[in-house]
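Ticket #4471: structure export looks truncated?
Reporter: QA, pipeline team
Priority: medium

Steps to reproduce: submit the single chain below to the structure queue and open the exported record.
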Amino acid sequence: MANETKYINLSDDTNVSVSTKLYVDKYNNGELAKSVDLKVTELIKPLPDVRLDLVPRPVYDAEVQLNEELQSEINVLNITIDDLSSQLAIKTADSSSLFLENDALKLKEARTDNNLQSIQLTVTDLRTNLTTSLTKAINEATEKTALEAENQGLTAQKNALIKQIDTLNNLLAQANASLAVAQQQLSAKQQAVAAGGLATGELATIVFDGGDPTKKKVEGRDLSNDYNGGFAPANKFAASGDPFKNNFSSYFDVVAGPKDISINVESTEGYAQIPFNFGFTLPITIKANETKRFEMLTGNPAWVNGNNGNDGGTWYRRSRPSRTDWTMKITIKDIDTNGKTETKDFKMRTYKY
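Actual output as written to the record:
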């Protein structure tokens, strides 16, 4: 990188004067910067973190947020209790000081009595000393009365502070209870999802006895069944034959979330009414955290009579089952005014004999 170098030779021992110029090595600044500011980049990037969301993210985030808000309220209440306890300690110390002052006043009163006895011995100074003593006694009595009144006020404040602490303890207990309920709700949802449940959103989770039907579709159908024939007993639903043998559920449970909900089940495609007789009138309302079971084994009379179970026409066609692909829609609604609504659709196939 040096461009030019010159040397001076003084090996000859002479007295001759020598004059010359000194040159500093010249470097290429660009090349020097490249060699110093060298930046090495790692070619192998770290592996990405694995994140397994076993709970639906909206459900998990909502419950975690509620948990954090309740914990924040508990922290605020604890700080308030500490502040009130400090104030109570200060007031108690002030009260003790007032008791000492009261005792001092009693001592002063005793000294005054002694002074009065001494004054009575001197007739000449009786009027002057009597006036002074009376004035001093009146002032001390007034001060004593004021101190006693202030002491009573401090006692009342102390009792009020004790009541406030009791109230805050009750609020703290309520907050802890709410936190326990929230944790229980989150645990119930986690258990339902772990059992193969399907979250409708934030309001409920649907659990089929055969597991998640959307993960074992056959010919595009989530569930299939026979009615009144085939592989089913008379007037009952049962699993169809192959390839639908394992594509059947005899019931499903609806697990409510943290709010009261209304549940409705209907057919939106294929049938005019739902084929199943659940044993109760729809829609049905359940409380928060409750579970309601919907049996899918008995036929709905309106469906049985309204859908005759055959293709119609000749005797041969009547002897064969009707095959209907239909959609079962489960609607979950928050019963509060302007509450949100969540739905889940399931593709069904029914062979009716």
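Status: closed, not a bug. The export was complete when the record was re-opened. Leaving a note from the reviewer for reference: The chain has two domains: 57-192, 196-352.
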